[in-house]
Design goal:
The protein is 39% helix and 17% strand.
Amino acid sequence: MVAGTSRADSALPVVVTTGEPAGIGPELTLMLAARGLLPPNTVAIGDPQMLRQRAIALGLDVTVVECSVGECPSGDNALPVWSVALNAPTSPGVLNPANADYVLATLAMAVDACQRGLAAAMVTAPLHKGVIIDGGHPGFTGHTEWLRDACGVDDVVMMLATDAALHAASPSWQGSGDLRVALVTTHLPLRNVADAITFERVTRISRLLEADLHCQFGIAKPRIAVCGLNPHAGEDGHLGHEELDIIIPALDALRAEGRDILGPLPADTLFTPRHLAGVDAVLAMYHDQGLAVLKYAGFGQAANITLGLPLVRTSVDHGTALDLAGKGVADPGSLKVAIALARRLATQRLSATV
């Protein structure tokens, strides 16, 4: 698979991978279809028979329509599906590593469709990293890194945003969690984070973040607030030297390029209305530093966006929720947000390139 350029067009479908088949991903898509909340021109990628069985088990009035790649028939309560067959039978809540290749095959189909101009954007339901690893892919660390490699790019940026922030060109903090948070490092053990914070990485990720805030969100000159790594942003070297040796020089270099960069700021006070006023995104140094705050502010109504790809990809803000799978009680709100955002970003991306 080679990197390509996604073509965004209102006539092209947004494709939604159904994720780990034992998790809530399949039923979230079915729920949206059953409630008439699936936007027009949206197609799922997964096993049609599994989706039909899950709909029957949950009592959902959904017509699963298997169709060829590139097609997206419409109809009341219809769920168009591009077919990928399961490797092994599945039951809600019961993981089976034999289906690791199935999950990756749905991702590969989505990427290929975007690159070939058959889809406007892709949305991913949650997968289970342990299943992928146990299923024969020991180097797998997550969607974000897999998409980076599949698309042949050097770096990508994981950014999550709450629903209100997704609708505005610039978030207006009102204490309710209107927030965009991007990450310098993603799925790393905490012990490895400090070694991964380098001058080159901070500058590359900051540039990618700024570029896609402009290209995909339509922000003319993004303002980015950057967290320090250590408590109190290192407190002048008394609580660590990463700020003095790496982060401050990197941010100074970015400011010298004319970029609107604030920080490094202590993470425990950055996420307050005073510091967030006029800020378009926060750049956190590691996963839980930024995402714990965002998910507290808007969990279930936020979306994950991968920046730096030659295509548009969004995802839900939660995991597989195996304890909820098959019970019909999972909240499809984040998937609804992610699908709507994918369409909007694809449209904005196209307008920025013409």
